[in-house]
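User: Can you predict the 3D structure for this chain?
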Amino acid sequence: MEYSEAAAPLIQGSGLSITRGIRPLFEHLDFQLHAGEAVQVCGPNGCGKTSLLEALAGLRPPDSGVLHVPPLTDSIWIGHRHGFAPELPAAENLALWCDLHGVENPDIEAAMRYWQVPRARRRALGALSAGQQQRTALATTELKKDARLWLLDEPIAALDTEAVERLSARIRAFCEGGGAVVLTTHQPIQGLTPRRVELKA
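Assistant: Here is the predicted structure, written as structure tokens:
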């Protein structure tokens, strides 16, 4: 999707710095994201990629700088820790997620079919493989239809080739429909050419 540089950005950050303890992860970062755009945050382990996404999600403030982000209700956050209850079935976890995020009349069956985990719906999430758990987390992108922003931290971790291709197609379709995506990954996602933002160690 084409976007206008003159349009107000969905995310606007200037002079952003985040520290861990007394050690700066990154400093003086300027960050913009427009509707229709996908951005990949790159950099070595420990450079602050996850911390940046947490700030963009409104889960933690930057230590310095100015950051304007959409309300969390307009976003979907999928992090390393998905926040699901491992003892509950996958479908029940998704139902609880929908309750927490104000999703009315969710079609959980369809979302799980799309991400090819329908047989896992009644199994405890903790008993599923890492790939099945990640597919279950990604099913939230099928449930919250009014989201404007996806924040995906290492979304292809544990996914097989087919699931990565499916995710690539979903990100492209979401951006073409006016959504925006910020993701981290150490590997390229086939079929996806996001703008890269590099964080230094």
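Residues 86-145 form one domain. DSSP finds six helices and eight strands in the chain.
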